[in-house]
Write a sequence for this structure.
């Protein structure tokens, strides 16, 4: 069975809650109607996506809630976003460019990846709600959603010490997680361990620099915000270094980069970030 075929059909979602959300949205904001951009995840088209704003955390400056509220008033610059991404957030499912790239790749470009039709075990770290909706709607997928801190996932898992047995999962999705993990090499080894010999792991991290930025002395939220643009990031990978780390632990790595996709498709779907497609060394690709 092709990997693209076990993703739930978009019509199943569009006939339910996302259709309702879309109708409510364009009913209240008709200016959003259009076909300049289209979401690869929920399938709906718009005149434009919403702007993504990476907000500063006033909690960096005070732990007391009342003081935080006071700081927002007295120091309005704390409310300014660290950075913005225009035309980025789907108004219906709230997908970002990296999510749309992943869905586009799986649906359109991954015919070489196969697995058993009725027993697909999928491990998903830090899952987005719309992705959970897609995967849970497919009876062929045994879906394992996990996170270390959230309580809305079925499994509470530390990515550096997973509770699952060896060679257990057909598919792993780990998007924008490893840049948060201090011991990322151990985490990569754990992903390798629980992946089946012919399984595939789809990994994504921000790769916006030519050389990885990583400094153990950058160990406070304020320093990380300055160095990595987020308070909970511990490094910023370069693409080459990320591939090198994955290769060293035993993965064979291919990539899907937006600069290799038709420009019209990239602009229409607003795709972003690279996908690192990983298999165990020696597996059948």
């Amino acid at each position: 069975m092709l990997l693209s075929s076990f993703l739930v059909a978009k019509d199943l979602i569009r006939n339910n809650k996302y259709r309702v959300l879309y109708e409510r949205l364009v009913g209240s904001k008709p200016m959003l109607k259009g076909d300049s951009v289209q979401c690869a995840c929920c399938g709906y088209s718009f005149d434009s996506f919403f702007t993504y704003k990476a907000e500063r955390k006033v909690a960096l400056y005070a732990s007391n809630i009342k003081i935080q509220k006071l700081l927002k008033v007295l120091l309005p610059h704390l409310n300014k976003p660290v950075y913005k991404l225009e035309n980025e957030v789907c108004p219906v499912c709230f997908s970002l460019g990296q999510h749309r790239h992943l869905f586009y790749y799986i649906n359109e470009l991954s015919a070489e990846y196969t697995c058993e039709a009725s027993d697909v075990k999928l491990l998903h770290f830090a899952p987005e709600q719309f992705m959970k909706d897609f995967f849970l709607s497919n009876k062929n997928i045994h879906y394992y959603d996990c996170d270390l801190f959230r309580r809305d996932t079925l499994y509470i898992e530390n990515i550096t010490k997973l509770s699952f047995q060896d060679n257990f999962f057909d598919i792993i999705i780990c998007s924008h997680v490893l840049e948060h993990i201090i011991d990322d090499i151990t985490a990569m080894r754990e992903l390798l361990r629980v992946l089946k010999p012919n399984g595939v792991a789809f990994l994504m991290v921000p790769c916006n620099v030519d050389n990885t930025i990583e400094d153990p002395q950058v160990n406070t939220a304020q320093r990380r915000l300055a160095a990595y643009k987020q308070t909970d990031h511990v490094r910023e990978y370069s693409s080459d270094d990320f591939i090198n780390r994955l290769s060293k632990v035993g993965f064979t790595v291919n990539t899907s980069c937006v600069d290799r996709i038709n420009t019209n498709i990239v602009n229409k779907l607003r795709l972003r970030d690279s996908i690192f497609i990983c298999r165990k060394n020696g597996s059948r690709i």
